[in-house]
Amino acid sequence: MTEGTTPSAAAEAGDTLTRLEQEGEIAADYLEGLLDIADLDGDIDMDVEADRAAVSIISDSSGRDLQKLVGRDGEVLEALQELTRLAVHRETGDRSRLMLDIAGFRAKKRAELSELGAKAAAEAKSSGEPVKLDPMTPFERKVVHDAVKSAGLRSESEGEEPQRFVVVLPA
């Protein structure tokens, strides 16, 4: 136990980790069944990132088959993530914030969005004007907000779903 951490705080942190690990296990079992039904090959990797369970399906071959599970612009991936969250909810009774990645799609998207956020922050700094970005999903907006924050600026989301977008504000 670290200095300043109460026994109950340490136990609570351990309980959260155990709960997130349990979510990952349930999700992995669900996804294994899905891969079997679809007759697709892939390895499942589980982790806990930023206070949420993270499950990835990694290709053990060319990865072309797994692209079917990603779909155009990640649409199928989003649907599978929701189904996986529902499977976890059915088992635990708790709402899940689990993140699913397939064939590195989200990891690649996160890198692209971080770069976009950094460029928008640089543009807002140099122009002194707010920079409005195209509409994005909640996941995409979160990544951009984080990149803008790490560049030392503020950003906000505006608009209504599905046309909600990020505005990067100058200093």
UniProtKB/TrEMBL annotation:
Protein name as catalogued: R3H domain-containing nucleic acid-binding protein
InterPro entries given in the database record? Jag_KH, KH_dom-like_a/b, KhpB, R3H_dom, R3H_dom_sf, R3H_KhpB
**Domain of life of the source:** Bacteria
- Stretch list, region Disordered: 151-171
Where the record annotates domain R3H, the positions are 107-171
- PANTHER family, alphabetically? PROTEIN JAG (PTHR35800), RNA-BINDING PROTEIN KHPB (PTHR35800:SF1)
Which SUPFAM superfamilies does this UniProt record tie to the protein?
Answer: R3H domain
